Amino acid sequence: MKKMRYIALSLLLIMALFRAFSSHAVEPGEILADPVLEARAREISKDLRCLVCRNENIDSSNADIAADLRVLVRERLQVGDTNEQVVAHIVERYGEYVLLRPARTLSNLALWAAGPVLFLVGLGVALLFVRRRKPVAPATLSDAEQKRLREILDR
Amino acid sequence: MTAEIGHFAVVLALAIALVQAVVPLVGAQKRWTNWMDLASPAALVQFFLILIAFSMLTQAFVTSDFSVRLVAANSHSAKPMLYKVTGVWGNHEGSMLLWVLILSFYGALVALFGRNLPAALKARVLSVQSMISVAFLAFLIFTSNPFERLLDVPLDGNDLNPLLQDPGLAFHPPFLYLGYVGLSMSFSFAVAALIEGRVDAAWARWVRPWTLLAWINLTAGIALGSWWAYYELGWGGWWFWDPVENASFMPWLVAAALLHSAIVVEKRDMLKSWTILLAILAFSFSLIGTFIVRSGVITSVHAFANDPERGVFILGILTIAIGGSLTLYSVRAARLSSPSMFSPVSRESALVLNNLLLVVAAAVVFFGTIWPLVAELALGKKLSVGAPFFNLAFTPFMIALAMILPVGAMLPWKRGNLRKASKPLWGVLALSVALGSLVWVMQTGGRMMAPIGITLAAWLVLGAAADLATRARLGKAGPAEVLRRLGNLPRADWGKAVAHAGLGLTIFGVAAVTAWETEDIRVANIGDSYSVAGYEFRFDAVRKAQGKNYSFDQGVFTALKEGKAVAELLPEKRFYPVQRMPTTEAAIDSGLTRDLYVVLGDPQPEGGYAVRIYIKPFANWIWLGAIVMSLGGVLSLTDRRYRVGVARRKTAPAAVAAE
Predict the structure, then answer these.
(1) ipTM field
(2) Any idea what DSSP says for residue A97?
(3) What distance in Å separates residue B583's CA from the closest CA in chain A?
(4) B281–chain A nearest CA distance, Å
(5) Residues B377-406, buried b or exposed e (16+ Cβ, 10 A)?
(6) Is residue B184 within 8 Å of residue B251, measured between CB atoms?
(7) How close, in Å, is residue A79 to chain B by CA atoms?
(8) What sign for the dihedral angle of Cα A52, A53, A56, A59?
């Protein structure tokens, strides 16, 4: 039994790995007539996660839930929501999990700050390292090295 | 019998690896030559045994021996021969066997080509390398045995995932593994140096070719994977910041940093302890990547918790390897302090900045990749980190890197004069900015992506050319003298210029295709003709046909430009009956200036087909740049100073013939 579970699990993993299936994304019928609204919908879609997919946005996913979300985004836009309102509406329904770009909240501070903080700290350390001046004593050969040098020269 | 021979060979290899991990190391500490001498033959035998095991598994796949569980689960008798062979590593167990094969392959290379290494260093390097072998061979034998037999032999197999039945992906894993398993060599050299307590220019000269070799393969492997995604996934995306992609990208970034810092160790005998740390980090990221991919922990914490055996095993290897090497590092690093100095304006400083940017970029990728896991375990929140985060958090560091690169590459060692060193670059800067501005003026409104990207790309490519021109005294010496000087430049200098220019080409491709892509999605009927971004597309027909192990619908499109047919495009919708899985094969007309990319979608209820057409300007430059980068690496690898050992071996042809 355990073996079968392995097989099933590894197959699942491989499927997930290649985000599988014929990906179809936005269907012709979903596209809004107004190109400006449609462009905004595409932009919003790229930041929203297809909830059942692996790391795929709703714009490029062919899952049913992604199609539903794409339609929902467009409905909200037609009602007159701003981009932020549309996203807020969807987050309210589906949770923070739907955001591919995590909100800049306190709990995500470490994520957003990691790069800049590491860079600044690294830069500081590097500057200290470069500016650290210590006289360089000319390296002298140890006795053993002197001996070896003589051996080589005498050869 | 084949599977049993394979199994036996792997177990024997584990025994040899155990001996190789201990005996030469003790020998090196005690200075017992005969104990140290064991390392090379052991490494060769270990490689040979794993090669036998790998051949046996390949044999089972090629002959469709469905009594082997792995073959039954992943192969099918009707599968084309190419995919029977590549199916060997298209699954967990087989890919782990490939992993250890490549690990032992690098050990064997050191045994064969490391004749000019000091005996003690060589013994320690091979010992450490073998410790990694022990860990992964044990993992293979105890949790992922590829040679298990089935009692009930099925009539036919389950087939390989159709998405994997593709030449691009078939050769993606071997390259990738040659890359990130290759970093084990840098790791082994670093740990050996820590045990020895000595790092010098000679050490850097030995470690750099191995890192370079790993990096070249990693570059090729990542590019191949990205190219596959581009043509296979059906909408031309080429990078998704997926955990699996990040797993290979983090070691690539750190290996790139390591390549540069090893130059400082080699030329200036400085940054030693930092270089050792980078070598440890680079392979640690390889291990972390293996853990992420093989345990599935990032995809689903629950899948991991339900079936933790493999994940926990790799986590154990990871903890011991990373924890052990870092502990050793903290004890020994102080001994490696470097005496010499450099001014803030110097090649050294520029390389330090390069290292900082690359490592921070790798850290950003790392944080982004593990953040969902951290948030779930520590904060109890389920959240996602995807492409929009990485594009925002990662890109600035790469832009900064591209900005300093040409200047840093031309600064002299020790102490430079910024004004003097950058003199040949003023023209390049002016030209690059002019190009960028031109693009900005020409494109109507829109994004800054293209102008910035093109400025940076030109700055990198022309900057590399300016470096070579300056070295050849172009404009100061006669043409014959310039040519002579260019010919006499070390291969490493050519490699540097070519690799840097390659980065520029990739940046150009990325910026151009991101900013200027045109997309058209519509329902089209057979016989329809419509224009997309200056091209006329005619939908001629849909035909049904049968492939070797799939059936398909094939759309026939003709692309015309100014009334003349430029390409016939044949997108397919395939159906693989064994796995009951449909796939989409985009039709791509590739070109240097644009790709025409056509995807046939589902038939619509009211007639016609959903058809997607993309015009992707300069898309191929992304991979062209990667090829050029790898080529730069190869040029650098063939530099004279690394070939000293090769030249020596040539005097003993008998030894070569005997193999």
Answers:
(1) 0.86
(2) G
(3) 5
(4) 16
(5) eeeebebbbbbbbbeebbebbbebbbeebb
(6) no
(7) 24
(8) negative
- Segment holding B262, helix H or strand E: helix B243-268
The sign of the dihedral angle between the CA atoms of A73, A76, A80, A86 is negative
CATH level 3 topology of A2-101: Helicase, Ruva Protein; domain 3 (1.10.8)
Facing residue for B389 by CB, picked from A15, A96, A102: A102
The C-alpha atoms of residue B355 and residue B344 are separated, in whole angstroms, by 15
Q: One-letter amino acid identity for B514?
A: T
Q: Is residue B109 packed enough to be buried (19+ CB in 10 Å), middle (13-18) or exposed (0-12)?
A: middle
Q: Is B587 helix (H, G, I), strand (E, B) or coil?
A: strand
d(CA B288, CA B366): 10
Distance CA(B236)–CA(A2), nearest Å, equals 39
Residue B233, min C-alpha distance to chain A (Å): 6
Q: Quick one: CA torsion of B166, B169, B173, B176, rounded to 10 degrees?
A: 150
State whether A21 and B583 contact (CB < 8 Å): yes
**Cβ contacts of residue B13 below 8 Å, gap of 6+?**
B46, B49, B50, B53, B100, B104, B133, B137
Q: Which of B293, B303, B341 sits opposite A133 (nearest CB)?
A: B341
Q: What separation in angstroms does the CA of A63 have from each of A47, B585, B603?
A: 16, 18, 17
Point out the residue among A46, A115, A127 whose CB comes nearest to the CB of B388.
A46
Q: What is the pLDDT of residues B491-531, one digit of tens each?
A: 999 999 999 999 999 999 999 998 888 989 999 999 999 99
Q: What is the pTM of this model?
A: 0.90
Q: Rounded to whole angstroms, how far apart are CA atoms B69 and B150? A: 5
d(CA B500, CA B115): 32
**Chain B stretch 135-154, residues whose beta carbon is closer than 8 A to a beta carbon of chain A:** 148
CB distance A115–B364 less than 8 Å?
A: yes
pLDDT at B301: 61
Instruction: For chain A, positions 23-62, list CB contacts with chain B under 8 A.
Output: 23-29, 31, 46-47, 49, 54-57, 60
Report chain A's terminal Cα–Cα distance, integer Å. Answer: 73
Q: How far is B296 from chain A (nearest CA, A)?
A: 7
Chosen for mutation from A31, A55, A98 (greatest number of chain B CBs closer than 10 Å) is: A55
Residue ranges of the alpha helices (H) in B296-424?
Answer: 301-306, 309-332, 347-374, 387-410, 418-421
Over residues B574-612, the pLDDT tens digits come to 888 888 888 888 999 999 999 999 999 888 888 899 999
Q: Which residue of B has its CA nearest to A114?
A: B364
- Block residue for tokens 């398993």: B181
Contact B69 A3 (CB under 8 A): yes
